[in-house]
Amino acid sequence: MPWAEGYFEASITGLDDDTDVTLDEAYLRVTPPALNGVTLTGGVYDVPIGIGPNENIDIWNWQFKMTNLLVVPWSFTGGMAEYSMGDIDLTAMIANEWGYSEAYGISPVGRVDPDTEKAYAGRIGYSPEAFNTGISIVYANEKTDPTQAGYQNRRLIDWDFKLENRPAWLNALDFEVWMLDVEDVIQPVTGLVDDSEAWGLVVQTNFQTGWESLSLSFAYEMIDEEAGIVFGDDPNAGWPGVVAYDEQTRQSFEFTPIWAIGDHVIVALTWRADWSDEDVFTEKDGTPDDSTWLAAWEWYYYF
What we know:
Oligomer: single chain
Helix content: under 10%
């Protein structure tokens, strides 16, 4: 059928000497003539929210952003409807739960899997020739424990922006700002139940140098959270389930030179620093610290 297409993608990931095979995407997408341009998708699909793609080979820096791994839904198992009207595009989604990055061993804060409640999401986008921007809303009830009787309401508002009409030396200039509201959170110190909020922003860019084979990527991210609703337990508290601070502001900066070697090989070298206003990182000797950094490299072969 010319108006239907299918897609399947799986990944093999090694974690703690174990090998996991994960179903990343498996969906059927149809555009029935009777629906006058509405496209329907069903199955497991990447969520079209934010600036961070879910494929390593498509991102400008070595690591996925904290926003992608811990805040914005990673993938949905459910249905999606899309419709475009000139420069305006509308997207509506319903899923089994608030998806996250299972393939990279990231456990969601305040959520358990599987869940019986649905997640609802929508996006309105505006895409003239100069830029691509959109506002997304995600709503879901989630359990914090499998035995919990009630549910925890989570609401996310996300604004993303990508500059499309760029000069030749600028390969990318992307922004993202979001706000997360979570109801019925146990507050640190007092132990009382109250609502908590978090917000964050991401800026990433890539410059083309005078050498055609070399470009430079820069990325900055900041997340401000209350009651650990993004990052969860304090790793230096001594026992699980404890957040020792009322509020935390965590930031990161990445610098990544990217080399294209011939027509088939890409090599990326990254330096990344993360820091916080709380001692949430742990040194090798077990000492708490407010900052950490890493250096990494990776390469891709196209064929």
